[in-house]
Amino acid sequence: MTYPLESEPHAGPRLDDPEYRAAVVDLLGVLAFTELTAFVRLAADAALAPRIGDEAQLAGMAVAEFRHFTLLRDRLAELGADPEQAMQPFVAPVNGFHESTAPADWLEGLVKAYVGDGVGVDFYREVARFLDTETQALVLGVLEDTGHSAFVVTTIREAIAADPRVAGRLALWGRRLMGEMLSQAQRTAAERDALSNLLVGGASGAGMPGFDLAEIGRMFARLTENHTRRMQAMGLSA
Amino acid sequence: MTYPLESEPHAGPRLDDPEYRAAVVDLLGVLAFTELTAFVRLAADAALAPRIGDEAQLAGMAVAEFRHFTLLRDRLAELGADPEQAMQPFVAPVNGFHESTAPADWLEGLVKAYVGDGVGVDFYREVARFLDTETQALVLGVLEDTGHSAFVVTTIREAIAADPRVAGRLALWGRRLMGEMLSQAQRTAAERDALSNLLVGGASGAGMPGFDLAEIGRMFARLTENHTRRMQAMGLSA
């Protein structure tokens, strides 16, 4: 393990630090597999669309996720990691999440796309500040590419206007999605030392970047606040 | 209906000819919806992949189809047509094709991707020569973007090497796919006057471009010959 030189005390994390590097490979691995899976699931949900234009919209969201996947995979390869190997530890939890949250219809699929994308964007933004400059640029670049949310918000609001009973069912669905995401994320982090060291590096005192414990609590508060805001935007109580 | 000026006897079809224009809108409509649906189905089949790398490969093939879709849709809009309306007549036959050919497993999904993509490319090439210069450039541009076939050929050959019984089942499957494609195409063309006039314009004597009847027979012969070649490339009898 290497340390920053004394002359550059705030040089930030360095990829030639093997502990930091392992954490970044883990992080890019989980993000890459999450994006690949989001692509496949969103694209499949597009088949539920009632109109061709809707199908094309959801397909477009899926394709954006695939672009993110390729960026993350290529970065893993650049770092000398085997992308498949880096993603492998996250196959079971990510697939488990999707199996326990298969949308029953088109509207549930849309809410899942919007809620999942939103939490993903928030998490990317939170974690970006602990990354080395290059990895940070990649993660922030992925963020810029999102933003099909107006379509989802409009469609859900229209569906509720047409049949107000829809709101209760979709509100429950949104809460279940958020709960499943948080519990899967927690379980995954608990099993991956390098990854959780990156996130709670400040707490471990090991010279790694990351949140301290109070900050982790605040991060979760921010994630759930933003989730609540998104649910409200769709006309749903969170 | 306008005719080429005498001074330019071989000027080719013109978009200000309403009959030709209607045929092009029909053609772009069926191609666009075929690509959108191919995207959705291929992406969903990617979930059947045994390995992450395989999943990413099939996902990449799907994304190429989505790019084609957006090119075709944008061209429809450029021509002043409503893309959704142009695609609508083809929803039932294209979805019907996919419902009657849902792959039972990963290998069937791969063969379908390869066979479908191959026949699509052949058909684009056949029809391109009857199009005005701009539409032709678009259709030929879509063609350039394909070519993930090496991956499929290798994977199918490996699967047959590992278990030779696979070959018989997949050969039957490939024949069924080709049969379903031809019969759906025939039924669709029979219902769409403008479209079939474009393809058999030479036979109608109405001044439209297109094949004469003997040439249609030869086109089908070429499509099935190329299909046979692709089946053989995978190690399958056609």
Task: Give a verbal description of the structure.
- Two copies of one chain form a homodimer.
- With 238 residues, the first copy, chain A, is mainly alpha-helical.
- The first copy, chain A, contains eleven helices and no strands.
- In chain A, helix 1 packs antiparallel against helix 5 (106-128), helix 1 (18-46) packs across helix 9 (193-199) and helix 5 packs antiparallel against helix 6.
- The longest helix of chain A has 29 residues, at 18-46.
- The model of chain A is unreliable at 1-10 (pLDDT under 50).
N→C terminal distance of chain A: 45 Å
**Largest beta-sheet details of chain A:** none
Give the percentage of residues in beta strands of chain A.
under 5%
Shape of chain A: globular
Question: Can you give the helix content of chain A as a percent range?
Answer: over 70%
Count every beta strand of chain A, where a strand is a DSSP E run of 2 or more residues.
0
Structural class of chain A: mainly alpha
Quaternary status: homodimer
Low-confidence stretches of chain A: 1-10
Short recap of the structure:
Two copies of one chain form a homodimer. Chain A is an all-alpha fold.
What keyword list fits this structure?
disordered N terminus; 238 residues; homodimer; mainly alpha
Per-chain topology:
The structure is a homodimer of 238-residue chains.
Chain A: H1 18-46, H2 52-78, H3 83-87, H4 91-100, H5 106-128, H6 133-144, H7 149-162, H8 166-191, H9 193-199, H10 201-204, H11 213-233
